[in-house]
Amino acid sequence: MNDIEQAIEWLKENLPSLEDYGEMIGAPPQYCGIKYVYNDPCGYVFETAIEALQEKLGREQNPPLTLEELRGTENQPVWINDNADISNTGWLVWSKEHNTGWFEPYTDDVYGSDWLAYRHKPDHLREGTNKLENVKSGEDNG
Question: What is the pTM of this model?
Answer without folding.
Answer: 0.50
